[in-house]
Amino acid sequence: SDAGISSASDFSAGSASEGVADAGDERQVPGGSLADVDIGADSAPGSGTDGRAVDDETPAAPAREEPPILEQLTEQGTRALTLVDTGREDPWSFLGGESTLRGKQLLVVSVGEPSPGLRRIWETAEGADRRGLVQVGDVPPAAEPYDERFADVVKRVPSRSNVSRLGIIVSQVATRFAERDGETIVAIDSFTELAARTTTQTLFRFGYLLESQFNSHGIHGFCGLAEQSHSEAELTTLAELFDTAVESTGDGVSLRQVR
After folding, report:
1. How many other C-beta atoms are found inside a 10 Å radius of the C-beta of residue 167?
2. Which residues contact 209 (CB under 8 A, 6 or more apart)?
3. CB count, 10 Å around CB of 103?
4. What are the φ/ψ torsions at residue 72 (nearest 5 degrees)?
5. pLDDT in tens, 15-34
């Protein structure tokens, strides 16, 4: 049966006290156009002052490289929870890279079968100060589980429908990481798997209360959601939790507005 969440007090046990180039400028000539300028007797149109030919076109400035996803979210001041569109190939790759997780804390919440992409991030996050794992439900026999040798903390929630218990554990571990160790990232994979065992309204309250906890401790939360697996009504409700989404593109990953 569905274990609902009625108020913020459901997560009160999760507090830390319980121990857990710009484009190049266009040059303007005062008092007229370039055609009005006296270029001197030793020069001719299309040449430098020493007679050497010059290009008529100014070289284009190099394309501005987008900063990493985490930096973009910080700069934009987005909400504590960000949607990750798991309906596309390897959406978790934005957490990879040599320096993305360096000096940070990573908490992975895996519901059922682990995501291969997120599992690779988990195993290669050598720069992370601490790694925590919350396994929700059983891992299917044919699936490769997370390697717990990399974990500083491991917690288990046997039932996927007990989102109240899950919320307490996630909040407990994440806030402990944030208060004791610094910048913390929580990856929940996924809301779609949780939705199969609970109601949309209960899942919304779970996300809403997590966001409140994360926001007060400066925690970045990323929630996997396979949008094509949900009805329009479900998406409309859950979209209220997010204002930004991470999605895979042909060139990697990018951000888009949810609402």
Report:
1. 23
2. 5, 8, 10, 11, 167, 171
3. 11
4. -60, -45
5. 444 444 343 333 343 444 32
Rounded to whole angstroms, how far apart are CA atoms 249 and 233? 26
CA 108 to chain CA centroid, nearest Å: 13
CB neighbours of residue 100 within 10 Å:
20
Span 135-180, pLDDT tens digits? 999 888 889 999 999 999 999 999 999 999 999 999 999 999 999 8
Give the pLDDT confidence of 54-104 residue by residue, as tens digits.
455 555 544 445 567 778 877 776 678 999 988 777 788 888 866 789 999
Query: With contact defined as beta carbons under 8 Å apart, do 109 and 187 qualify?
Result: yes
Q: Distance between CA atoms of 25 and 34, rounded to whole angstroms?
A: 15
Q: How deeply is 148 buried, as exposed, middle or buried, from its count of CB atoms within 10 A (0-12, 13-18, 19+)? A: exposed
- Token reading at 92: 């978790």
Amino acid at 143: A
Asked if residue 253 lies in contact with residue 94, where contact means CB atoms within 8 angstroms, the answer is yes
